[in-house]
Amino acid sequence: MIFDRKKHACLPDLPEGYGLLCLIDLQNNVKTALAVNGAAIAAAVILAVIGNFIIPMATALEGEMFSVLLRLGVMVICVVVYIVLHELTHGAAMRYYGSKTVKYGLTGKYAYTGSSEYYDKASYIVITLAPVVLWGIVLAVVCACVPSQWFWTFFFVQITNLSGAAGDAYVTYKLIRLPDTIRISDSGVAMKVYGLSDK
After folding, report:
1. What average pLDDT does the chain have?
2. Over the stretch 118-138, which tens digit does the pLDDT of each residue have?
3. 18 and 196 in contact (C-beta within 8 Å)?
4. What is the widest separation between alpha-carbon atoms in the chain?
């Protein structure tokens, strides 16, 4: 079971017989970063179009100026809070699988969560996708419950959640294609994937 924390517990050290298989670095690999950011922008546009069919975007501008500015202010605050919660969710998932060294940080491009432990394939995919799934569900419920004038306040956060997960989706895609025996180390800005040596 993928959520079995004992079976998929992280390891403090890399097991014997493992060697570096590949490096996933979304910050310094320009080609990959452009592809992922392009996918994120495309996803954001598609989601905005879908959202406009659900509740027209112009609805967000209805009402008195104070109400419009209030909704805009709440949206900005919610996006900032979401970014923090996104990283905390990665960290909580790491701790669920036994990590003792979770760290958080901010680079010029990204907020990040990292650790010094080594995760197996199943647990790391859960760690990677936990924020987009958890907050995707929460935000979907919120968007369904709020008045129409507030829909875009929270749907914009949902767009941030789903389109911002392009990097997480890319990492998951890369890992799914690799053997189940791999181990992953995540410094926060880059992931090192280790595989069993042929020797």
Report:
1. 92
2. 999 999 999 999 999 999 999
3. yes
4. 71
- The predicted-structure confidence for 5-37, as pLDDT tens digits, reads as follows 899 999 999 999 999 999 998 877 888 888 989
Give residue 110's pLDDT: 77
Compute the radius of gyration of the chain from its Cα atoms.
Answer: 19
User: Of 125, 117, 122, 120, which is closest to residue 90 (Cα–Cα)?
Assistant: 125
At residue 3, φ and ψ (nearest 5 deg) are -95, 10
Q: Burial, 37: exposed, middle or buried (Cβ in 10 Å; 0-12, 13-18, 19+)?
A: middle
Which two tokens mark 182?
Answer: 């791999």
Cα gap 31→36, rounded to integer Å: 9
Q: Domain segments of the chain: what residues?
A: 18-196
- 195, 121 in Cβ contact below 8 A? no
| Residue tagged 């419950």 (tokens) | 145
**End-to-end Cα, the chain, rounded Å:** 30
Helical H runs in the chain? 30-54, 65-96, 121-145, 148-164, 166-176
